[in-house]
Amino acid sequence: MRGIEIQQGAMFSYVSLEQRVPKKHPLRTIRALADAALQEMDGALTVMYSHTGRPSIPPERLIRALLLQMFFSVRSERLLMEQLDYNLLFRWFVGLGVDDEVWDASTFAKNRDRLVDHDVGRSLLAAVVAQAKKRNLISDEHFSVDGTLIEAWASMKSFRRKDDNTPPPPSGGSNVEVDFRGETRSNATHESKTDPECRLYRKGPGQESKLAYLGHALMENRNGLAVDGCVTQADGYGERNAAMAMIDAIKTEGEITLGADKGYDASEFVERLHKAKVVPHIAQNTKNRRSAVPAVVAKTDGYAVSQILRKRIEEIFGWAKEVGGMARVKLRGLGKVDWRFTMTLAAYNLMRLHKLVVTPPATAEVSLRCGT
């Protein structure tokens, strides 16, 4: 018999949010992992706030909401607040009740800036890595490093001479017609008036120059988890300097290996690795030159394995850009872009840990857009 549509809704609901989320939903595992990491960060989160005044958004809920934004590619915080208003799954993950009021987007953004000021992205990444170490999922001997281009939230029209303080014409608004034909532009003489910290850069010969930053990640080779990351201004030395800084931060007494592509095959960089007791498993660049990587190292079995595993770091960058929103970051300034990048690496690790810790891929019944 055909059912009859009844428009009148029930006044009360006796089904809790906990009951509405499937037992095998990937977000349940990710929520447990995130909560464990946030518990380790409790002391660091406490010092961010004063002991007087009105209570702000709890930082744990703020961080969980930002993780959802990355998992589901929500392109703005205004849309994120809209989702939190009617999406029961989002409410459950963040920790909001069915009747709890959702924050205003501007209030949320203001509280987010507090996370930027206290470098919470890096703290979260370290806490998630610590959770992986407790489960013996992190290699402490074999690593890979690489960098990627992060397009800045600035137009090429904003890239003008540093001494050019001419305001835009009264007609036509800010998006005026600009003719750069015949003009030589470089970072030495020009800067973006929208984001002065970004740089004009191209990744390789024949590629388009863009206003961008460089994002760097250090990956352990056992399960492809990001153990460190940072963002620098885009220049020809940024990748190697950032790689050395991340390697120096590793606390280990034994010898470690570092896999990388041909861009890192420079004598100065390889020499710095030797001094740090790091074996350079770097792809040899022998095009019209001699590689700085010793032949005795390049002939080892470990070197061959590193050359295979190092390419997995592209999975991190691919997820960060396609899902996490890092292809063109919607924030300005090196500090904010660095915070967002490290937060995205932490989100990627949580997604990977879901697969590694609890749910084998063959038995997963529910899949996230983030690839789990």
Automatic annotation (TrEMBL):
**Which key words tag this protein in UniProt?**
DNA recombination, DNA-binding, Transposition
The record ties this protein, via Pfam families, to: DDE_Tnp_1 (PF01609), DUF772 (PF05598)
Q: Where is this region: Disordered?
A: 160-198
- The UniProt regions of compositional bias labelled Basic and acidic residues, in chain numbering, are 178-198
Where's the Transposase IS4-like domain? Answer: 206-350
Any idea where the Transposase InsH N-terminal domain is? 16-114
What the protein does comes down to:
Involved in the transposition of the insertion sequence IS5.
Q: Which family does it belong to?
A: Belongs to the transposase 11 family.
Q: What is this protein called?
A: IS5 family transposase
Q: Kindly list the organism's lineage.
A: Bacteria, Pseudomonadati, Pseudomonadota, Gammaproteobacteria, Nevskiales
